[in-house]
Structures are given as C-alpha cells and as structure tokens.
Write a structure and sequence with these properties.
The complex is a heterodimer. Chain A is mostly helical. Chain A has 13 helices and no strands. The chains are: A mainly alpha, B alpha/beta.
Amino acid sequence: MPREGGVVDEQAMKGIGRQIKLPWSKAVEIAAKSMKVRMGRSVVTTASIVLAIAFLMSILTGTTLTTSLRTRPQQEVLRVREQLEQVEAGAIAPFAFPDGLSEDQLSREISSKRKRAEEDETDPLVIQRLFDEVAVAEAARQVLRADTDYQRARAMLDWQVSNARLELTNIENEWQRLVRRLRLEGVTGLSVEVTRAPPERGYFRMLAEEMEPRDRWLGVVAVMVCFVGIWNAMLMSVHERIREIGTMKCLGALEAFIIKLYFLESSFIGMTGTFMGILIGFVLSFVRASWAFGFGPLYSYFDFGGALLSAVFTLFIGSALSVLAAVFPAYRAAKYDPVVAMRVEE
Amino acid sequence: MPDSIVRTREVKRFYEMGDTKVHALRGVNLEVYAGEYISIMGPSGSGKTTLFNMIGGLDKPSEGKVYIDEVDVAQLDAYELAWLRCRKIGYIFQTFNIIPVMTALENVTLPMTFAGLTSDEARNKGAELLDKVGLGDRLNHKPFELSGGQQQRVAIARSMANDPAVILADEPTGNLDLNTGQEIIELLKEMNETAKVTIITATNDMKMLSASDRIVWIRDGRVDRIEKRSDLDIDEGKIGGVEDL
C-alpha cells in the first residue's frame, strides 16, 4: 500500500546519508594510475606541450640574450671609460700591484709583444691591444725601477692608467665583434661608437620594446597550439572513458571527484610538459646564441634575472593554459548522465 | 508482509523527440520486497531498461514516484543520490564495466573508498569478497587478464562492496556463454540467499527464470503480468540445475 508523504519524509531523514568528499590523495592515486596505463597517449600530449613551451621559452630567452648582448657591453664601455677618466685624474684607489714580477720578465714580454704587433699581426684591433699590453708592462717596469717613494707613486699611477686603457681597448674590441655578429643576426640600429648606454628597463618593458613582431606572433601561435593540444587531449581522454566515468558515478563518485581527476591529469601533464619545455627551450636558445655570438661574451653578459623571469613567465603561461584547457572537458566528464554513459559503445 | 525495498507508483517516462512524445513507461506500479530475487523480462523496446534505470536511481521518472527503501528518489540531491548509489545499490552491467586501469581488487575496493573506508579495511574486505566469488587467487589481475565470466564475478564482488540492500543486474548474462551465464546466475542466487541481498535483474535470459522468486513481464511500457516461480511450469532440473528451495 502507498504510504502517506509525511511518513516517507520521516524515513528519508533517518535512511539517507550524504556522500563524503574524498581526499585529494585518492584522486592523485587514481589519476596517476590512469596516466600510467595510458602512457603512450600521455607522452604524446606532453610532447606537444613540451614543443610549444620550448618554442615560447626560446623566443623569450633569445630576446633576452640578444638584448643583454647589445645593451650590457655598451654600459660596460661607458663604465670603463669613466673609470679611466677617474684614474687619469688620480682620483681612485690604486689596483693591487702584482707581486713577484721581475724586470727581466717584463722586458722579455715587452719586446716579444712589440715584435708581434709590428711584424706578425694584421688585425688592427689585435695590434692596438698588443700595444696597450706593452704600455701596461712598461708602466709596471717603471714601478719596479722607481727609486724614491714619489717616483714610485707616479709610476703606479701611470701603470693604472695603462691598465684601464687596456681594459677599455679589450671591451671596445669585443663590442665591435659583437656588433658585426648582431648585424649578421639581423639586429639593426647598432653603432660601433658608444656614445650613450641603452637604458636599464624592466623585463616586460624590455620584451615589449625588443621583441620583433614576427617573434611576438610566433609566441602567440605557440601558446595557442599548446592550449588546443591540451584541450584536445583532455577531450579525447574524456571520450574514451565515458563508460568508466559512468561506472564511477554508479559506484558513488561525486561530480567533484571526477572533476578533480581530470584536473589533476591535465595539470600534471601540463606541468611536466612546461618544465621540460622550459629546460629544452632555454638550452636550445643558449646553444644557438653561443654558436652565433661566442660563449665568452654570452657568459660574461648573461642576464640571469631576465632568463629567470622568462622561465617564470613561461611557467605561468603553461600552467594557466593547462588548467584552463582542462576546465571544459572535466566539466563535461563530470556532468555525464550515467545512463547515457553506459549506452556508449566502446 | 515483508518490507518493500523498491516501490514504484504510476511511474511514467516519456522523451520529447521533436514534436512527438515517445512513451517508454506508461504507468508502472511495482513493489519489490527485501530479500527477493526478481527478474524483469520483456522484449527490447518494452521499457524494461528504462524501468530498470528508474529503480536504480539512474534516471528520474517524468511522472510518478520511485521509492528506494521508502525514500523518494526524486527528492534527493546529488550528494544523497551518490550516497544511495554507493551504499544501498550495487550495479552489475551486461558489459561488466570493470575499470580497465585497475586490478580486480582495486575495482572492488573503489566503492569502499568512495564510502570512506581506510585502505586496509577496504583491502581486507575486498579480498574476502573476491574470495567469495571464487577469484581469491586473482586479486591483482587486470581486467584484460580475466575472462568475461571472471570479469562479471569481479563486478558482482564490487556490487557487494558496501553491503547494499539491492543489487541491480542489467542483462548480467547477456555477454556470456551458456555455462558461464549459468554460473553467474548461481552466484547471484547464492548472494541472494547468504547475504540476504535483494536482487533485481533485467534480462532476456530464460535461465534466469528458475532462480527468480518472481518474474515481472513488461510490455509496451506497462507491467503485463507478474508470475511467482511456484506458478511457473518449469522443470528446473532441465533448465538450470538449481535446487528447489
């Protein structure tokens, strides 16, 4: 016999509980398992993210490296010039004079370098540097020969000036070589003459001003590829598991749990891909830049802050994308009606 | 009179398809008592599966009421429905629906996990259940390492995970050969007798008749007739070999 509604409600109160929410650890366990089993597909998805992120990272790092190569040497040239002026005015503390130098040693060095500069070398930059080195050695010999304290102090000052000139020569020569290479790489608007240093800028302002339009466009494309890749992978993953999702719901899984599963899966794939992409993108662009500009200048003018910010920025984009791209598929998975899900043929 | 575990009152279900209304159920009144083994039979398209989904809380009626353990299913929110599916109802499917990435034991313990059991408790209970269905030596086999009959045994163990009041078996023998199907029916009957769990099957398998206490025949979205096993003219020895009780 049908009972009265009131009785039914009363019994409902004591009969039915509310399903508990499962801890994240369980979701992590299950998500990890399903990724392990579908390793092949997970690897392909991850690879597409690695590629896209590596591409983005190499664009950012490339811009950062090129920019640091064209700004930092100029700043350095100006700094050394200023230092030279100060030394010539006798205004800064002396360098430490190297101990253990002998007059004979210095004389031998002077004659061999002078001979090299006058007879062997043809490159004017090298010849100039050799003469500067001779000047430093001669000044050092003067320091050793000086009899009185006064003479010695004067000679020390000469030695310092020669030293600073040598440094300036070196750095200006390096800048000239860099300019040639930068021009070969398509960087325009560079002058061998350093008159004023490019400004120190924040990372994003630097990117906005230095990134070429083509690179900017390619970066956007890389990001979109990454986004669509994750989205597609997650949709596929949902689709091939519709029945599994339906089964889980029949066994008492809450929608939130299903969403958690897909979120974890896409975040993990996204994070792994992003980290690997950042690493690969950085290494590739560094190797490429050292092939183009030489490892020495790249290392000495390396913009650590810029590289770090590139990595952080890329990490942010990669993670945001993988979470965003998972939203819709995860929601779709969770909303599947178990009845519909069960009817799907596999 | 025994307690009713599932009760439907004038249940109707129709689907809108364009301008036409397709009636799957046209008003079903049915009462299933605790501890019964009941089979819902009918040709495909009769509304058998729809009724079955209603009883299992998988689908909601367009009109009428479905009570599971005297609770109106339509009144439940998502959390309560999930709780119901987890604790009160065990599902068995024609296609087994064992989760392929998990071992037999993990499949059985999943509903226990959803119910909040600790891993150790679930592991012990799961092993016990798998032992009961005759798979005690295959706890860590993956579904693809198991035959159809074995997979269905895992599904039966899984449906028993949280000591449900009702097991709903949708064509449990539909994808199995004759002998394996018979074994599964016997196993269900055994669960019905030892664990006192109510079993409701939707089936076309005549082997099921001998195991059932009552058979509900569905036709054109209505209950055509309900037969008690004692009324059936079946020589049980020939059909299933199930002993008369």
